[in-house]
Amino acid sequence: MSTSTPKPFDPALLQRVIGPYLEGQPSVEERGEIYQELLGFVPPRIRSRFHVTGALDTKMLDLQEQARTHAMYPEGMDQKTVQLLLFGMLLMDMSDAATVHGLAARRAGASWAELQAVISLCYLFRGLPAANRGADILADLAAREDAAATAASKAS
Hints:
Radius of gyration: 18 Å
Order of helices and strands: HHHHHHHH
Structural class: mainly alpha
Distance between the termini: 49 Å
Helix content: over 70%
Strand content: under 5%
């Protein structure tokens, strides 16, 4: 097995090697709408799951998305709270997915101070690695927001 760097996401390659995204289910674009709304993009792993599982096991893909939607949009909690909780849970695991949920929390109205409070709670039980990782995530999110604001001001 090769250890070379993976190439960028290529749906044509997946279709050629694994098979086509099967008909009779929501399109990849339709499935991605909820991620676009939440994050502003569809994360690469999600795109891969849509294309691979959508070609091999459409029922499982439907079940995954139904469970995800059910869990991530609870009646008793607003999206900012949900995303702050997910950010903290994923940071405790040192998961790179913490970044996308930090982004989703910001898009849902979370302040930098709220995100830092979550990082501080993680520090109590996960230590400096979580504090360092959390600060690095916030620095990345700040850079992303600044780049987007700069691009928007240049466009107008």
